[in-house]
Amino acid sequence: MLKAIGVRSVDDLFSPIPAEFRLHRDLDIPRQMAESEIVDWFKKRAQENAEGYTSFLGAGAYNHYRPVVIDALVQRGEFLTSYTPYQAEFAQGTLQAIFEFQTMVSELTGMDLANASMYDGSTGAAEAVMMACRITGRNGAVVARTLHPEYREVIATYAANQNIPVKAVDYVASGRIDSRALEAAIGDDTACVLIQSPNFFGTIEDIEAIAGITHKRGALLVVSIAEAVSLGIVEPPRAADIVSMEAQSFGVPVGFGGPYCGVLATKDKYVRQMPGRLAGQTVDKKGKRGFVLTLATREQHIRREKATSNICTNQALVALMVNIFMTVYGKVGLRELAKQNLAKAAYAASQFGKHAKVKFGSAPRFNEFVVETSEDPYAIHNRLLGHKIVGGLPLKKFYPELGNAALWCCTELTTRSMIDTAVGLTADSERADRTMREVEEEEVAR
Amino acid sequence: MKHTTRKATRHISQNEGLIFEKSSPGKAAWKLPPLDVPEVDTAKLLGSQERKDLGVMPEVSEIEIIRHFTRLSTWNYAIDLGMFPLGSCTMKYNPRVNEFVSRVEGIANGHPYQPEKISQGALRILKTLSDCLIEITGMDAITLQPAAGAHGELTGLLMVRAYHQSKGNPRKKVLIPDSAHGTNPATAATAGYAVENLKSNDRGMVDVDALVAQMNEDVAALMVTNPNTLGVFEHDIHKIAEIMHAKGGLLYMDGANMNALVGKARPGDFGVDLMHLNLHKTFSTPHGGGGPGSGPVAIKKILEPFLPIPTVITKSDGTLGFDYNRPQSVGRVRAFYGNFGMFVRALAYILANGPDGLRQTTEDAVLNANYIRKGLEGVYDLPYKTPSMHEVVFSDKVQSKRGVRTMDLAKRLIDYGFHPYTTAFPLIVPGALMIEPTESEPKEELDLFIEAMKSIAEEVEEDPQFVLDAPHNTRISRLDEVGAARKPILRWKPGNA
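YS: structure for the whole thing
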């Protein structure tokens, strides 16, 4: 090949790089490993992780069962090693799959249409805010404090650089958004109200009421959904203008936080302000049905600095996992799956409630709930870890006012014995704690 | 007579409708275990919030699902089927060991909020990959959080803004060469900067004189791709850096073409202040039909205070942990820690190669591109004679005289069993054919590609209409894209076939 090219050595091909900037040594990285060594290396890392633990963690990353057909199908090289389907004739498989994904997401969210995916729920929510600003011509967002705290942080990052003022609205004793404070927070410059439902505490919001308040002031309602399985049994936010969903629950590994699958869904009239890729149905020269990426004039490779977003690569293969999951469970299975989640969480909350305070009980919730203990939840955590159980997420870090409260999640994979063990270990200390307190009180009384 | 191809033959492929068209009540592919807690009264728990109907969601059996997606898959082209010469996209082999290790239990199932003491394995993966990428780029620190290249660009520019802000003035503009990827100007706008174009010189490089004229204290940064989108190394890159630095500006490098440099040259050594990497290009994580990607941003020390939170640190007891206490941080750009599964795959790739393997990879990528250049020079117009690195850009100047454009040539290439090259980009080359073979291709595949391209050039001379009507061998012919955009049909509804 060198001879054909007409050079003497490969190094000659690198002569365009000035000699002083060429690297004349080996990179200081680990040596080349055989495949068996690579597998060993990662298995060791897995052992240093929570391998073999069961968990009550949710909070935006949910542990649901992943039917094995998902990995069997997404590992087909024709999906795994293909590119963004710009050359439609040679990528009909990916395009039809995206079209089906868009259909199912719009159906489940109660919207008219959905895009092909966003990076994740947090960036999707930030993009939804910017989309609302473009649609309304206004510049401001009102965000519920019960939106996932890390989503709020991402929105803050994006908004700061777009000069979009963001106001936060607190929650009330039911765990729902404070609707009076919300009404007061919306101004003439408010492009959108952004809430999450079920919210970060697992509480289901009254979407209709919030939409009423929001629309009255000419703002759009953006609803973020972090737990997609809820859509099997919880009424979708049909009154919203934009839905930003994190679809990780639908067959995507928890995987230490990513890759996940965000997606935006909206009303027909807003499609041209939507960021991200869209697949559309059309016909070929012979009239045969086919699919193409469409409305590309919104996108960066055509519009450059005037694009609706800078997004290019999205989460296609993860969206395919989501697609297969939705297809496996389908119309009936998704409802039954959601029902099991509801039942497990209801049982766990009732059991916890016998020994500790379950907060925000007056509004409906899905598969997460907040338990307040007198003992520091980190101490409970440590006790549970001894039994290879990871307890609920202590909320102090995100909500200092909630003190010793922790967010617990149950899915269809949470067993009754796991719940009983966790409740028992939490109750032990609560009982011990109470006894101690009673003793102290007696001492004081004496 | 039409030319034949040695690479591909027509074969039977299965027809397959939309999944909704196969659905009928009662079919199911799921089964839940018996409920081990009391049943709940959903109406009582949810009241008016209870959903009663899931609309058009499908009901199908497992074999139908397997066949559905398998049939769809056979309509795709893929790296696993052959060369995928998309310029700037670096469609290299995606090693299967990457997929295997990413699915090891304990790696695939780790929860982002599990306590740090039982996350040491995941943290070690983050740390090891970070160290490797810092060494490969010659930079000082890195964030792995951005979810894709464009997201990395945004993160980078937010750090640029924070850096200038810390000096009292965030500045107004970002300079971008006319050869840049579309994401660069779109990102600058998202980061709140005005975009100013910088023209290329007759060798396809940044025009240094133009840069001197345009650089001033309003300019926050220059975003440059190196090698640029013509596959040309910016020979004056160090001078460019000096011009930027002299006026207090920063040099941002789009690392999309890092496959030309790994192990041979380091951006940190030639004056770059910050850059993003595309793990789905250079580091072999699969493109998956358009994602997921991963776009780490490597930076020089001056930008370290502004890294997104959290960062990975080694604690006093030697264990690893996350650091959230970074007051000058630009904040968070994504929930959790980024596309962790992609970090696992990229690290597996680095470990499989080591220092010598990575260097060899780069050499092979550049060798392959130059072999194609030599093979097609004279057949297709080469607008810039400047030496090529990992990709080569031709134009359709010769063929367009017969009315055949780059996109038409690309569609005919499909009939020859190859995915098209990148068409009509970079914008500075009218009718561009941008070809990047990567290191993955053996000489035999390259020869088939060269043969196919030569054959198509002959067809253009003999029968241009035949090329204009391509592809001829695919399941469907060219699609009506105008109609698709004018009356968008973006979802299936009962009754629309």
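YS: worth flagging: Residues 69-326 of chain A form a domain with the Aspartate Aminotransferase; domain 2 fold (CATH 3.40.640.10).
IM: good catch. Also Chain A has two domains: 69-326, 331-438.
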